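Kindly inspect this today.
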Amino acid sequence: MLHGGYLDEIREAAAALARAPGDPGRIVPPHAGPAVLPGAAATVLLGPLFRDPSHLT
């Protein structure tokens, strides 16, 4: 998140994965600093598990 190019990639991924249309421009860097990045990364990594916990699809 400290590099501006990453934010563009995150916005593109959010737009591609969104279930409802939205404004990816609303995604902004965290204001709490780098301390929140592990939680944000865990959210992304655990997303597939929560979407299909039994891996049936």
Notes: The longest helix spans residues 37-51.
